[in-house]
Protein backbone atom coordinates (compact mmCIF):
# COMPACT_ATOMS: atom_id res chain seq x y z
CA UNK A 1 0.00 0.00 0.00
CA UNK A 2 1.43 3.36 -1.01
CA UNK A 3 1.77 6.04 1.64
CA UNK A 4 -0.44 9.05 0.94
CA UNK A 5 1.21 12.43 0.85
CA UNK A 6 -0.56 15.73 1.13
CA UNK A 7 0.63 19.10 -0.12
CA UNK A 8 0.11 22.12 2.07
CA UNK A 9 -1.81 24.83 0.25
CA UNK A 10 -0.03 27.46 2.32
CA UNK A 11 3.54 26.83 1.19
CA UNK A 12 3.45 23.81 -1.12
CA UNK A 13 5.41 21.51 1.20
CA UNK A 14 4.61 17.81 1.33
CA UNK A 15 3.00 16.60 4.55
CA UNK A 16 3.35 13.00 5.68
CA UNK A 17 0.45 11.98 7.97
CA UNK A 18 2.37 8.88 9.17
CA UNK A 19 5.23 11.07 10.39
CA UNK A 20 2.79 13.32 12.21
CA UNK A 21 1.13 10.34 13.91
CA UNK A 22 4.53 9.02 15.00
CA UNK A 23 5.48 12.47 16.30
CA UNK A 24 2.28 12.62 18.36
CA UNK A 25 3.09 9.20 19.85
CA UNK A 26 6.60 10.42 20.73
CA UNK A 27 5.13 13.49 22.41
CA UNK A 28 2.77 11.28 24.44
CA UNK A 29 5.70 9.07 25.51
CA UNK A 30 7.73 12.14 26.52
CA UNK A 31 4.81 13.47 28.56
CA UNK A 32 4.37 10.11 30.31
CA UNK A 33 8.05 10.15 31.24
CA UNK A 34 7.85 13.78 32.49
CA UNK A 35 4.40 13.95 34.14
CA UNK A 36 4.96 17.29 35.87
CA UNK A 37 6.69 19.09 33.00
CA UNK A 38 5.33 22.16 31.24
CA UNK A 39 4.52 20.12 28.12
CA UNK A 40 2.07 18.03 30.16
CA UNK A 41 0.56 20.93 32.06
CA UNK A 42 0.21 23.32 29.09
CA UNK A 43 -0.12 20.84 26.16
CA UNK A 44 1.50 22.99 23.45
CA UNK A 45 1.00 22.37 19.75
CA UNK A 46 3.42 20.11 17.88
CA UNK A 47 4.33 20.74 14.23
CA UNK A 48 6.61 18.94 11.82
CA UNK A 49 8.43 21.41 9.57
CA UNK A 50 10.81 19.91 7.06
CA UNK A 51 13.21 17.71 9.02
CA UNK A 52 12.54 19.55 12.29
CA UNK A 53 9.84 19.77 14.91
CA UNK A 54 8.30 22.85 16.49
CA UNK A 55 6.54 22.90 19.86
CA UNK A 56 4.48 26.07 20.29
CA UNK A 57 2.41 27.56 23.08
CA UNK A 58 0.67 30.65 21.83
CA UNK A 59 -0.63 32.16 18.61
CA UNK A 60 2.67 32.40 16.78
CA UNK A 61 6.40 31.81 17.10
CA UNK A 62 6.90 35.56 17.56
CA UNK A 63 4.31 35.86 20.35
CA UNK A 64 4.48 32.49 22.06
CA UNK A 65 6.85 30.15 23.81
CA UNK A 66 8.53 27.85 21.32
CA UNK A 67 11.01 25.00 21.12
CA UNK A 68 12.74 23.70 17.99
CA UNK A 69 14.49 20.37 17.54
CA UNK A 70 15.54 17.67 15.11
CA UNK A 71 13.54 15.18 17.18
CA UNK A 72 10.29 15.46 19.13
CA UNK A 73 12.03 15.03 22.52
CA UNK A 74 14.65 17.67 21.69
CA UNK A 75 11.94 20.14 20.62
CA UNK A 76 10.02 19.42 23.84
CA UNK A 77 13.15 19.92 25.96
CA UNK A 78 13.83 23.23 24.18
CA UNK A 79 10.21 24.28 24.76
CA UNK A 80 10.37 23.42 28.46
CA UNK A 81 13.66 25.31 28.84
CA UNK A 82 12.12 28.42 27.25
CA UNK A 83 8.92 28.04 29.27
CA UNK A 84 10.77 27.90 32.58
CA UNK A 85 13.11 30.70 31.52
CA UNK A 86 10.08 32.88 30.77
CA UNK A 87 8.67 32.27 34.24
CA UNK A 88 11.96 32.84 36.07
CA UNK A 89 13.58 36.19 35.42
CA UNK A 90 17.39 36.20 35.36
CA UNK A 91 19.07 36.46 38.76
CA UNK A 92 19.75 40.04 39.71
CA UNK A 93 22.01 41.27 42.42
CA UNK A 94 20.19 42.15 45.60
CA UNK A 95 21.40 45.26 47.38
CA UNK A 96 22.37 44.60 50.99
Can you walk through the features of this model?
This protein has 96 residues and is an alpha+beta fold. The chain is built from 3 helices and 5 strands. It has helices at 17-33, 38-42, 72-87, and strands at 6-7, 14-15, 45-49, 52-57, 65-69. The strands form 2 sheets. It has a 3-stranded antiparallel β-sheet with strand order 3-4-5. The longest helix is centred in the first third of the chain and has 17 residues, at 17-33. It is globular.
Describe this protein with a few key phrases.
96 residues, alpha+beta, 5 strands, 40% helix, globular
Task: Specify the biggest β-sheet.
Answer: 3 strands, antiparallel
The radius of gyration over CA amounts to 16 Å
Q: Which structural class best describes the helix and strand composition?
A: alpha+beta
The global form is: globular
Sum this structure up briefly:
With 96 residues, the protein is an alpha+beta fold. The protein has three helices and five strands, in the order ββααβββα.
Helix and strand arrangement:
Layout: E1 6-7, E2 14-15, H1 17-33, H2 38-42, E3 45-49, E4 52-57, E5 65-69, H3 72-87
Antiparallel strand pairs: 1-2, 3-4, 4-5
Amino acid sequence: MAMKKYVSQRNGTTCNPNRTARATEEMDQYCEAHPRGPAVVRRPQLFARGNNFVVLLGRSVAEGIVGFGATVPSALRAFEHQYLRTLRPPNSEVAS
